[in-house]
Design a protein that fits this description.
Elements lengths: L1 H6 L24 H10 L2 H14 L5 E4 L3 H9 L4 E5 L23 H19 L2 H10 L10 H5 L2 E4 L16 E3 L16 H12 L9 E6 L8 H11 L4 E6 L15 E4 L4 H4 L5 E4 L3 H9 L4 E3 L6 H10 L3 E3 L6 H13 L1 H19 L3 H17 L1 H9 L1
Parallel strand pairs: 1-2, 2-3, 3-4, 5-6, 5-8, 6-7, 8-9, 9-10
């Protein structure tokens, strides 16, 4: 992310002790408990040390951290600096009545479904709390009190900011006081726009526009591969092959973790590494993806029905919400070419999907217009700055 950070005129600092690259984000999801251990708990003290180093290097009023970087939160807490946790996906903090992250469950409507959601939430808590002794040892090393439940870390944050739309999400029975929806964050990553000047970007856009056939009666599709490395080559090839059997045109974007040379494409599918999805979506009738939060949200705000074939992370949760809102269909990543083709045809031919996508998309756009992310961070930073500049007030609060 160095290019994005520096392009926004911010100083960029690398992790020194904490893992980066594939070590920080393993592609193997076959053993979720092992994935959680390697990503969340094992590197806790390393993330904390890096955060403490940065706080000590320059005056710091607040810390904003990705929600899964528990160690970053510990570093801020140990430095007595206010911190916020940002979830650019569904909440990984369990919420009463809402299916937990990675479950792929839908909003419960019956007592049986509610029992299933409650059991899934209990299972999530059990999975995380299996690491509670390790986590509490890390907290003790930093001079922090032990927690009775891993989820209590979220309660210690000054803010828990969910970067999605409440209109897209399911509804919990209640929300914690520090929990705030701040709307989706949909900046375009630099890797997808390799051209630097506006003229070059315009030329790039024209290069994919020119690939559509001249037949105005043909529908068009966007096939969007996940930007994360998930071993998705076989799934992506199966989607391309399925679309090749349909009388439509398609643009397929591979993203940064798939080699275009490893794919074969029929005549009606044009494969590129990246393209400006906001522009592409103005020209298509349907989107097929693994269900990443950005692609799903962009599709909805462009009133596009979508087929989601989730492989991991939050993708099954996004797929469940798309399906529940009536804005698309969900298939397993093992779906056959015939099943994928049939679903794409349904999404193009049956108007109720587009109507639902437009309805949800309009609500999401309204939430984005009201985004409070910057306001929330300014508030906790102002409090942190006051405490830093007037430490005696903090001491008095401690005495009280």
């Amino acid at each position: 992310m160095r290019a994005e950070v520096e392009a926004a005129d911010f100083e960029f600092a690398s992790w020194h002790r904490a893992p980066i690259g594939a070590a920080a984000d393993p592609t193997d999801f076959s053993d979720m408990q092992d994935w959680i251990r390697r990503v969340v708990f094992d590197p806790c003290l390393d993330y904390a040390a890096d955060i403490e180093h940065e706080i000590g290097r320059a005056p710091t009023d607040a810390v904003l951290s990705l929600d899964v970087l528990f160690g970053a939160a510990l570093g801020a807490e140990a430095s007595d600096v206010p911190f916020a946790l940002l979830s650019p996906h569904v909440s990984i903090r369990t919420l009463p009545g809402m299916p937990p992250a990675s479950s792929g469950l839908s909003q419960p409507k019956t007592p049986e479904e509610r029992a299933e959601v409650d059991a899934a939430n209990a299972s999530m808590a059990e999975t995380l709390n299996a690491f509670l002794p390790v986590f509490n040892r890390a907290r003790a090393d930093l001079g922090l009190p032990a927690l009775a439940d891993v989820m209590h870390l979220f309660d210690r944050a000054d803010r828990l900011l969910l970067a999605t739309s409440q209109a897209f999400d399911f509804q919990a029975d209640s929300l914690p006081a520090n929990f705030h929806y701040v709307g989706p964050l949909l900046d375009v990553p630099n890797w997808s726009l390799q051209a630097k000047s506006s003229q070059e970007k315009s030329s790039q856009a024209e290069s994919w526009r020119a690939r559509w056939s001249a037949r105005p009666d043909r529908s068009r599709a966007l096939i969007a591969c996940s930007t994360g490395a998930q071993g998705q080559r076989d799934l992506f090839q199966r989607i391309i092959d399925a679309v090749g059997t349909i009388e439509i045109d398609a643009l397929a974007t591979t993203g940064p973790n798939l080699d275009m040379a490893d794919l074969r494409a029929p005549k009606n599918v044009h494969v590129v590494r990246g393209a400006p999805h906001d522009l592409v979506m103005k020209d298509v009738s349907v989107v097929v993806s693994q269900g990443g939060h950005g692609t799903v949200t962009r599709s909805l705000i462009n009133a596009l029905p979508q087929l989601v074939l989730p492989m991991g992370r939050d993708q099954a949760d996004n797929a469940a919400r798309v399906e529940a809102k009536g804005a698309g269909l969900r298939l397993p990543a093992t779906a056959t070419e015939a099943e994928i083709a049939k679903a794409v045809i349904r999404l193009i031919m049956e108007p109720q999907f587009k109507l639902a996508a437009r309805r949800v998309g309009e609500a999401i756009k309204a939430d984005m217009d009201r985004s409070s992310l910057v306001d929330e961070m300014e508030m906790i930073a102002a409090a942190g700055r006051e405490a830093r500049l007037q430490p005696w007030r903090r001491q008095l609060r401690g005495i009280a």
